[in-house]
Structures are given as C-alpha cells and as structure tokens.
Amino acid sequence: MTAIKAKNQRLVLIVLAAAAVIGAVLLGMWGLRDNAAFFYAPADVARKGVPLERNVRIGGMVKGGSIRRAADGVTIQFLVGDETDATIPVRFTGIAPDLFKENSGVVAEGRFQPGGLFVADEILAKHDENYMPPQLAKRGDKHKTETLR
C-alpha cells in the first residue's frame, strides 16, 4: 500500500472543501427560488410587460383620486404610478397600513393577472424622511427635537 504524499492530500482536501461550498450555495439557491420576489416599477412593466403567475413586488406612488373601496369594507383598488405617468391597477383585500393614502409611496407584493391587474397579498406604505409618529407629533416641537437627537 502506498501512502499519499502530503502535497496531494492537501490538494484533495481543498477540492473537497470547494465542492462542499459550491454544493451548499446551490442548495441554498434552490431552496430560495420560490421565495425570491423581484421588484418592478410601473415604467418597467410598461416597457417589459408583466410577469404572469410569479410573485413580484411593485412600487411607486398611489395616484391621487384612484383609491376605491369595495362594499365589503376590506377590498381596495387603486393605481400605482411613477414619474413616467405609467400606472398599474392594484387590488388588495385586507387591512391597509395606517400610512397608506393617496400621493404617498407604496410597495405591494403579489401577482399579475392576465388582464394586467396586480392582485396584492401585502401592502407596505412608505413615508419620507420627515415622518413623525402621531404620538410624537402631538407632544410639540420641543419634544420632537429632543427625541431625535
């Protein structure tokens, strides 16, 4: 029986370690493939089309005057737009966040339907950098500046 030289033994260990790392990365990517959500702006959708039956995120501004509430009290429809005047019609059933309103930023996660309607499973309302929680806004300017330091 011949002994493996130390140099060859190190080479075999390095190759095995590299194969294990590559295998772990591939397994991780395969496991996350259905959970990855791509982000689209209305201009992207207008330019590239809509990815049907795939979980994606869209983002933009809620167009003024576009929010329509259904009679059931939990379904809302609205338009998400951007600076290019492209819009995406969105339908969401559920309780909308407190910050959700017209002319404010929104990110919606869901799927496109064949007619171009985006059915959202989740809505995230965005706010600007000057946002102040209502509890702090009621306390006055002096407290706000002290709290923010």
- What is the third-level CATH name, the topology of the largest domain? OB fold (Dihydrolipoamide Acetyltransferase, E2P)
CATH superfamily of the largest domain: Nucleic acid-binding proteins
- Can you list the strand order of the major beta sheet? 2-4-5-7-6
Question: SS-based structural class?
Answer: alpha+beta
How much is the average pLDDT? 81
Instruction: Describe the global form.
Output: elongated
N-C termini distance: 74 Å
Q: What's the SSE pattern?
A: HEHEEEEEEHH
Unreliable residue runs: 142-149
How many independent structural domains? 2
Helix content: 25-40%
Total count of strands: 7
Structure characterization notes:
There is one protein chain. By secondary structure, the protein is an alpha+beta fold. The chain has two domains: 1-36; 38-137, OB fold (Dihydrolipoamide Acetyltransferase, E2P), CATH 2.40.50.140. Helices cover 31% and strands 28% of the residues. It is built from four helices and seven strands; from the N terminus they run H-E-H-E-E-E-E-E-E-H-H. The longest helix has 27 residues, at 6-32.
